[in-house]
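Appendix B, record 7
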Amino acid sequence: TEGFEDLKKSVSQYEPEAVEKLTGIPADELRKAAHLFGTAKNAVIAYGSGITQHLRGTDGVRALANLALVTGNVGKEQGGLFPLCSQNNCQGAFDMGSLPDYLPGYQRIEDRKVREKFEKAWGGELPLKPGLSLSEMFNAMQTGKMKGLIVVGENPIIILPDPKRIKEALKRLELLVVIDTFLTETAQKADVVFPGATYAEKDGTFTSMERRIQRVRHAIP
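Structure tokens (predicted):
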């Protein structure tokens, strides 16, 4: 295990009594919860957007991942992390390559052979390096390095932490295009808005976080 001593050092200041003062949760209850989770044969951590949309959301998810790792609940059946996304088909979108550093099937974009395979299939050239992460994109907007943005079926002003910062970053864009089924807070700030198709108007699949694939057929021609 790498970094275990560093982890011990970082959490050593958070005795249950100290955490009780910060959270209001009784120290005895914290100890009971820790014992229950630590001694369970299999344990799953399910977390929702309350963590990921927090200003320190990345740190929160990392803490949960560390908890799963130190208790041996990663890489086995009936264990691990289970994010409960606020939008449907997040997993399906990830599987299809809607990530800055992966192509479909979680194949690294830096791999030349992988790039060549998709370039041949798609009939075009792919970048040699990964794109920007979501946080990096908004940093680039604030510094003026990113001039335009297309938002599809998303509302970053509401779902991302620090909405004031998000609004300020979007204002710096020269062009903001939003494709959505609703006139969201983000769409109201856009230069161009296109209507998006609902799930009832499209064929495709939804993939749950359990990797269960559900076929979807359009109901409206």
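Remarks on this record: The chain has a mean pLDDT of 92. Strands lie at 44-47, 80-83, 102-103, 107-108, 148-152, 175-180, 192-195, 204-207, 213-216.
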